[in-house]
Write a structure and sequence with these properties.
Chain lengths: ~350, ~350, ~350, ~350
């Protein structure tokens, strides 16, 4: 890769503190399968944010695996999931949820978010029992696949309709760090813990090499959770690898600081582009920027940078997507802005 | 853990070279999902041992996940697996294979190995079609769960009966390193590649933090393999983590050297125990030792060491299991032997 | 049920010829599991319509089971189905297909039919491999869930796009009888056999008690089909029950004649209603009629008849659904029409 | 089939009363999907034997489908079944249970029965959690696949160990009729209802064309049962077909009388063979007879009869299996005995 990449937020390795801690602890002997002291300490640190000392927390290696385990562990075979049609489980997981036997009921969504009205419409059109699968779990992600975030009011109202209809609420937090660090965010981890039944805190996009922390506020769902982690291939012999990373992220506020930096870089790009008179296809809530630019400018930028061409707007303009991360080089951001300004 | 542990071969982190390379490469931008240069170089190094420049190789995070992906990707829903009744997929994966929809036909085995006769008996007693699932894949592990290893002759004869009966042969190589490094081993990676349709090279027990390299000599099976990795949650965004580890293991022969060290430590324990007049419940082929000791001696050893009580032999004696690894501290081995000699 | 029912086409038992043949053959001893002489003769009769003496045919008890077996037997776990969003497998089978592990890609459809453009759009939006399940099978039904039927030209063009894209074409023929018997139909069983890879001929709505005949023109798909029937619980010990019914339906053209009668009754209802000045929400292609009537008239009709209120049109009018069958009593049809004319 | 068959108990159609009732009720309009009046009356008649007016009862078409639905509806994905290694779900259902995602733990059994000790040993050897699937359901059949039957004492003691270990007890009653009608039986349907959580009453071998009545004494398990019937393809549009058959079997005690006749025919064969000085490989509890005969006699019998050669005993003798049914022709039984006596 000779050009600088704004393709995604996982092109680099991990925050150097993590590598240092891995090295410092490397030769200690630890109990396997997540019973190590680092995982235990990481759980303790995360629980400080949850407002509950006993909330079960499990570490697994990735996001799709978290979705597989989290969803299949709480559903019986006739139960279905309600998701926005842009949900990661709908579009980008190769049918992983269906492969565990469950139907996903899709709700149209323009901005990646699910609303109580959307949930209600899914319930209404899936009520012809027993000829239809029974809706039992609502899947949302925050930040969404479109980079938008949920407000406390929105999450609370989703929680209400779920409780009213005996639906579980699951939040995929692969991008939770950048959501919570967004300027217009008013949610805390404690709120997420209060409003959802199960959620995860993504590590990969937050500065770790791999890893998600699955948090289960609805403790009934946790009873046999370890079986499901093992059954789906998610139980690492050297669980310390996951524990150490979350330990580093939640010591010294690294988790939030890295996300704030990532968002700040996105804002810097976004503001500069708007200042140059260009518009955005979507508001920059977190670390994804969707500027609409002249194709000539895009071609110029492509000589030095990698990014996704998102959508054709008209014959002269296209939307591109720029993603920043904890590792984004501000010099490259400035260089990108320089080219935009120049033209 | 205050005592020194001979419980397993994954109590420590990873070989220091791996941590160093992770640090050295950390901030380079890499293509995600296994498209990084380190994964590509690791594949090249492994292929040098296989005798084929084009053999497909994929990296995934763990052993159970490799079994899930490897097995479910090659079978149709009515096809079954033949395995020794001591196979890891039978006993210690929480029904992971059945969770993908497939039946496992168990063949009794005293030493963890499967023989052509065992395969034939499974075929004979599962031929009442279509009332019985159709045997299609033979699962073996090397080293086996009992620590025994396959000879070239044994693997070749299994390969023959499989080919004759249109069965695929899969070798679970979670412990392949210690098998290939065993004193009485006559197999090479090239042989394994010749005799099997798909196998994996375990990293976790070979000095890595996580990771298995899935090798697919029968290239027809590889066509859509990446879909299955993704669908089962095994596709890491930062695939570099896996590639870098195998790069380190296969540069400078680390993979074999660490395994030889591990076996040597087991042999040292084994020989000293036998020299003291005690017998072994099983021959020490690789890195597992099963001495039969007086209970009084066992109690004494337990004051300083952790290990599994394997089986009661009589009122005065029990079998214990000692596992060594690339990280075993020879000082502790000597100390263990000292206590045995003393009593 | 005190009122006469136009709710569905399975409120009565079966054509009396079937009961007579069941009685006539009852005490003969027959080979189990579909090996009986009646099933064999029924296959022979059906094959006379297919233009191929060797086409594999299997009988199973119902439509959802046929979908489960037909679809899961031909797909590998990462492969997906393309269906109209009104497809029976999408809406009314309780997630049966997902329960076998497969994702259904939904294509919007106003009239229940799938077009080559619809298939192409599904391919285009599901091409981000390996992050998306691989489209492999196109599911259509004829007559569709909306009562519409495919023309020869339409089915041929679907077949073409499928072949071009390595997609299998499956036709759910639960209502195939009324489709083939429709006035505007130009398809034959031979055409269906030519254009699809697998399809079934529904018996339940054609005058049988239960039963579907699964036909597999693409014989490669039939190799292990019996295993799948057994594995999904579809292999009846007394397979004669299914064979005898299809034997009766395909002797003396009963299959087509009953469907023609059913369609004729629908046409009679439809024409009379239109003659009275009311409009239809959809054209009456087969045995479903969707008149738009004043609510006052509907209430009057409900005193003597059962039928579905389909949709509110405005404050004074609603669409209702009337379904006729081989068993529809023409006296009741006349009585229904009488009330419509009267008001 | 020119010879008279003792191969199985499903070579003929059904008891004539069933055909008569099918004919008598044929043209009445009935609510679909099991809501018909015949199914409701059949449930009422069966409940008279259960000692509980509210026990849920569902009708499905076959035995394997009952196992699929009954088992998959009550288990979560990490839960396993304990079964004798001779269980129908282990040996003769093409991996149907595994295809729903569940592991079967096999317990060796010489006579087809499972004992409390067998259950305990399965629990003991499957307790390494979470690395092993969690035992949750015990599967037994009565009569067993070997023709043996459970006493009240045996079933009661199985029930006790299940309750003590939070295990559900499921009884596959495909052959329940001949078990309950056996001379040495002391179980009633009420007992079965008391001791099990879910069981079924087989119709196919009891004189019906198809059909099993699934009874759910543990009513918590019934909550969403209809979803599972539909999802697995077991919900017949014309549910009347199943209801009418059980209505006939449970009116006028046909269910028990036919089974008694079947057992009597087996006893007649068995006694006569023993009287001739031959021994039996197993006691004749129900409608299966396992005589050990000289090969020369067997060859002679094969000229007029079809039956299974079960096992070679020595160079001159083999075990054969004879199965009788409600439809067995006593003239043929006498003729069989005549040949045995003659030689």
């Amino acid at each position: 890769m000779n050009k600088y990449s704004f393709l995604d937020d996982y092109s680099e390795g991990c925050h150097p503190d993590i590598l240092k801690t891995l090295a410092d602890t490397n030769m200690t002997q630890q109990t396997a399968y997540g019973g190590d002291e680092y995982s235990e300490r990481a759980r303790g640190l995360i629980r400080q944010h949850l407002g509950n000392d006993t909330t079960p927390i499990y570490f697994v290696s990735g996001g799709t695996l978290s979705n597989i385990i989290g969803i299949s562990s709480v559903l019986k075979s006739h139960e279905a999931i309600i998701s926005a049609n842009s949900g990661h489980i709908v579009l980008h997981e190769t049918g992983a949820i269906e492969a565990t036997g469950h139907k996903i009921i899709q709700v149209p969504s323009a901005d990646g978010k699910l609303t109580p009205d959307g949930v209600q419409s899914a319930l209404d059109s899936n009520a012809h029992f027993p000829h239809m699968a029974k809706p039992r779990l609502v899947y949302i992600s925050n930040a969404t696949e479109a980079g938008t975030i949920y407000s406390k009011e929105e999450l609370s109202s989703l929680s209400k309709i779920c409780k009213k209809n005996n639906l579980l609420l699951l939040l995929d937090g692969a991008r939770l760090c950048t959501a919570l660090a967004a300027d217009n965010n008013d949610l805390t981890l404690k709120d997420v813990c209060e409003f959802t039944d199960i959620f995860w805190i993504g590590g990969t996009k937050a500065g770790a090499l791999i890893g998600e922390a699955i948090v289960i506020p609805n403790q009934d769902l946790a009873e046999d959770f370890a079986f499901h982690i093992k059954q789906r291939g998610g139980l690492l012999a050297k669980g310390r690898l996951l524990g150490i990373q979350f330990l580093c992220l939640f010591e010294n506020k690294l988790f939030m600081e890295l996300a704030k930096y990532s968002n700040a870089m996105a804002n810097k790009l976004s503001s500069a582009i708007v200042d140059c008179g260009y518009s955005l296809a979507a508001k920059t809530d977190s670390n994804q920027v969707f500027p609409i630019l002249p194709n000539t400018l895009i071609e110029k930028l492509q000589q030095s940078f990698d990014f996704y061409l998102w959508e054709k707007v008209d014959n002269q303009h296209s939307t591109i997507r720029l993603v920043t991360s904890w590792a984004t080089d501000e010099v490259q951001v400035d260089s990108f802005i320089g080219i935009v300004k120049e033209i």
